[in-house]
UniProtKB/TrEMBL annotation:
It comes from Pseudoalteromonas carrageenovora IAM 12662. Residues 1-297 form the Carbohydrate kinase PfkB domain. The keyword Membrane does not apply. PANTHER family: 2-DEHYDRO-3-DEOXYGLUCONOKINASE (PTHR43085:SF15), HEXOKINASE FAMILY MEMBER (PTHR43085). This is 2-dehydro-3-deoxygluconokinase. Keywords: Kinase, Transferase. GO terms for cellular component: cytosol. Gene3D superfamilies: 3.40.1190.20. Belongs to the carbohydrate kinase PfkB family. InterPro entries: PfkB_Carbo_kinase, PfkB_dom, Ribokinase-like. GO terms for biological process: D-galacturonate catabolic process; D-glucuronate catabolic process; DNA damage response. Its EC number is 2.7.1.45. CDD domains: KdgK. One of its GO terms (molecular function) is 2-dehydro-3-deoxygluconokinase activity.
Amino acid sequence: MKNIYFMGECMVELRAMSAATLHQSFAGDVYNSAVYLKRSFPQVATSVVTALGQDNLSKKMLERFESEQLDTQFVFAHDSKVPGMYYIETDAFGERSFTYWRSDSAAKKVVSFLNTDVVKQLSQGDMFFFSGISLAVIDENAREDFWRVVKQLKSAGVKIVFDPNYRARLWNSVDETKTQYDLAFGLADVTLPGVEDLTTLYDVHSVEDVIEYLKIYNIDEIIVKNGPESVITQLDNTLQSHTIIPVTNVVDTTSAGDAFNGVYLGARLSGKSIADAVQLGAKAAGAVIQQPGAIAPKDVFQLAMAKAGI
Ligand code: ADP
């Protein structure tokens, strides 16, 4: 059985439904990817690597992971911290605004749980995924330990997968981000950047610019996303362009990239070609953006994937 580890933060989501009603769910980029991967490729063992607390919301979050058939052996329970949370509101013009409480979340402490024993177990994996958000979230003073773990996994033969997913507000400066991303790209075997994410950081404006920029690194598999525009991939120096069929009924683009990543990686772990994996990832993303919120209802998602042939 193939397996993949998704390291990062899942948060409590509070969504304003009306003046008096909040809907509570759970979301976070790596968690969203893990959910969509597992729903599409149940034969791939899919683990979340994170830290929660000992509070009731943490317990409910853990139950949600389990109800999505995610492996939770690397979901650690911090003795005093609690999960991060965000509030999302959509105004009369459809414009979304977010408020976050995540600066002291349990997930910031995840690296402190990655002891020798855990690293040994993670070393058995096929892929280890983290994003720019995962990097921004972990405690600054845990970064050195984190990179040591990533290097250990890589030398054990685990494929390192990185999505830069840049969120300016999570970083102190662009220079700090670039230093961390340089380490990430330097270790990555697979990367799945979006053009928009890298524009501010490296002044790149097209998929071709991104491929050109990444030439300084030794990355085997590059998948560049650009909203409804073509996806460009590079595998062992062979470039391919993949046409995306735009969907018309876009309701909420949250987690388009996350759904794409999860399903793409699930497809690759299941032996699909790059071209097939991109098409499946794109189908998943196209289905997800026609639903509100980060996690689309299971039946709707599964129907869309069945139509795509899985
Ligand atoms: P992110 O969520 O990282 O900003 P993108 O907007 O680049 O991600 O989109 C990720 C993927 O989602 C794209 O590569 C594409 O497959 C799919 N996608 C995004 N927007 C559309 C759209 N309007 N129609 C169809 N597919 C889309």
